[in-house]
């Protein structure tokens, strides 16, 4: 039945087009009577065309009919991954994460420094970091294992946060922490050995600052 209706649809379309062309031709020849007859015939053909199209749609296979509910959505929203907020993260976790990267020491340094630039340290943390840095230097531990990524990155993070807190202020503690930061940075990235002249010079300056801190 579907094939028969399709044939009628096609035939009606062809007849309608021919009738329309003949009507136009008769209008051009100023034969209005024949032209009107052709237009009526065209109208009938269009009517049959519409009926056959509607009837044919009823015989379409079910697999060809897609309901609105079953049709794919063009703008389907994807689930958004939960982003860990800064408040929930800890600097210790960040240091550990960066230390585990398979990148170079320089890239790890850049990553932890970028994090330290935005870290919202409290005054209590600043004091805690200062005391820690002084103790590590006094115990001669701060350059004892420059291959220990997590330890070195933690020291660099703390020193940067303290220096950022004091800014350009020239105080013994700020000068001391800056020397600590430089030596940790240079040795971690392999730019200087722990016994190089540059490292020893910084340590002499740190000793002077430490004396001023303790007096």
Summarize model confidence as the mean pLDDT.
77
Please report the total strand number as a whole number.
Answer: 0
Report the order of strands and helices: HHHHHHHH
**Anisotropy-based shape:** elongated
SS class? mainly alpha
Beta fraction: under 5%
- What is the percent of helical residues? 55-70%
Distance between the termini: 107 Å
Q: Spans of 5+ residues with little confidence (pLDDT < 50)?
A: 60-88
Count of helical stretches = 8
Radius of gyration: 42 Å
Major beta sheet summary: none
Structure characterization notes:
- With 215 residues, this protein is mainly alpha-helical.
- It contains 8 helices and no strands.
- The chain has helices spanning 2-28, 32-58, 91-99, 105-118, 123-138, 149-166, 172-188, 197-214.
- Helix 5 packs across helix 6 (149-166), helix 6 (149-166) runs antiparallel to helix 7 and helix 7 (172-188) packs antiparallel against helix 8 (197-214).
- The longest helix has 27 residues, at 2-28.
- The N and C termini lie far apart (107 Å).
Characteristics of this structure?
8 helices, 215 residues, 68% helix, 0% strand, mainly alpha
